[in-house]
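Q: What structure does this chain adopt?
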Amino acid sequence: MGQDEWDQRFALAEAQRAGLAQLQEACAAHSARLLTHAADRQAAARQVQQLRGSSKGSPQLSARRNLSLRNLARAASPAPLMGGGHAPHGPDRAVETTAQFLEWYGGVEARLAAEQDAESHAYAERLRAHTRACAEMRASVARAEARLDAVGAAYARVCAQTGGVRAACAELQTRRERLARADAEIGAQLCVYDELADIARLFSAPGDVCRDAGFLPALGRAERALEFLSRHADARDSELYAQRFAQCRTRALTLIKMHATHAFRRLGGDAARATQAAQVDVRFRAAAVGLRPLLRALCERRRSDDAAQVLGDVQHAYFQARRAWLRAHVPRALQAIAREHAGGGAADTLRDWCAFMMGVCADEGRLHAEFFGGDGGDELRAHEDLAMELFHEQVRPQIIREADVGALAALSLTLLTYQRPAPADGAPADLDAFYAAADAVLSDVQQRLAFRAQEYVRTQIAGFRMGAADLDHAARWVRDGAPWEYPPVARTRWLAAQLSGCVDPEVLRGLAGEALAACKQSVVGQARALRDATADGEQLAHAFVTGALPLAEQAVADLLI
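A:
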C-alpha cells in the first residue's frame, strides 16, 4: 500500500492533524537518537491517526475495534527514558518499520480479540445458566398450577359431596338454638317456684322488714309469680303455690300498713304537742323520705281490692295525724292574726285569714303528694274540707256580729278577690276546698249584707223624720237654692254605692228598688211635715218633692246602668 493510498484510505481529521503537529514540535526538541527514529515514529503515529480517523469515518466498526485502537494508542505512546529520552515502541524492542508496526499491531489485536472472546464466552455461559433456571422455574410454576387445579377440582368434588351434610348440620344447629331458647325460658319460669322460700323467709323475718332494700322487689316477684301461676293454672301444684304466694303478698301489704300507721300515729302525737309549724313540717317531710316508696307502691296497686283497702287505712291514719295538728294550729293562727288587726277593719283580718287558709290547703296538697304522689283525690278533698270548717267556725261569728253595712260590703269585696279562677287560668286542684269555703263564707256575708241593707232602708231611709233644723234647711234649699241634700236621698246613694259590686246584680236591683221606694215614701211624708210647719207650706212641699225625687232616682239609676 502506497503513501497516497494510505492517506486516502486513512484520512485524518483536523483535530488529529493538530495533535500530530504538536507531537512533531515536541519531537524536534528531543535528543539526536530520538530524531533518528522520528520518521518511523511519525509514520507509526500517522498510521495510528489514520486508523483512528478511519474508525471515526466508518460507523460500522464494532466496540471491539474501538477498544483495540485505544489499546494500540496507549502502546504507541513512547515511554520516558533515563535522562529525558523515550523507550522504543513495544514491550521488548522499538518499532522501526511499518512491517514491525503491523506485526506488533496484529499481536495486540489478537490479544484483545482473545480477551473479548473469553468475556463473551463467559457471558454466554452465564446466559445459558439463567435460561436453564428460568426453564426450571417455568416448569415448577406449571406443576404448581396443575397441582392447584387438581386441588380445586378435589375441593369442588368435596363441596358437592358434603353439601347435604352442611344443610343437615345447619338445620340441626337451628333446632339446637331453638331448644336452647326454650330451655332458658323454661328455666326462667321454673325459677318462680324456687323464689317462694326466699320471699317467705324475708316477709316472716323479725323486726321492721319494710326497711329492707329487698322488700319491694320481693313483693314484685311474688306478684309476678301469681300472674305466672294464673296463666298456668293446669300445671302441677300450681294451686298450692298460688296460695302460698298470695299469702306472701298479703303479708307484705299488712307489713306496709303496720309500718305506715305506726309512723303516722307517732307523727300525730308529736304534732299535737308541738307549737311551731316549721317543726311539724320538718318532721312530716323527713318521715316522707322513708315512707314514700312503700306508699307509692300501694298507690300503684290500688286496683286490687286488698291493696285499695290497705291504702285507705294508711291514708286514714295519715289524715288523722294531720288533723291532730290542724285542729290546734288553725284556730291558734287565726286568733293570732285577729289580734294583729285588733282595732282595725274586719276586711283586713278576713283578707289575712283567707291568705293563711289558702297556704294551708296548698301545703296539705304538697305534703300529701310527697307521701303518696299524684292527685290526692276525694280523700284529700275531704281532709281539706275539714280544715276549712275550722276556718268557717272562726269567720262566721265575726260575720254575724258585724252590723255595719259598709264593713259587710268590704268583707264581700275581700271575698270576691278569692273567687275560683276561670278553668283557662289553671287553678291548682289542691285549692278546691279553699275556693268552696270562700264561696260559702261569701254567701253568708252577702246574706248578712242584704239583711243589714234592708234594715238600713227601714230605719235610716223609710224611718227618717225631719227635725226643726232639717225643716229650716229644706225651706232654704227650696226658696234660696242653698246647698243641701235630703238625708234619705244621700243615704240611698250611699247604700247603692256600697252594694254595687258586692252582691249579685239581681239582689242589687232589688235592694236599690227598695231603697228608692223608701226614699220616695220619705220624701212625700216629710213634704207634708214641711207643709204643716211653714206658712207657704203647700208651695214649699210641692217644690221639695219635685226637687228631691229626681235626685233620688238619678242616684240609683247611675249605679244600675
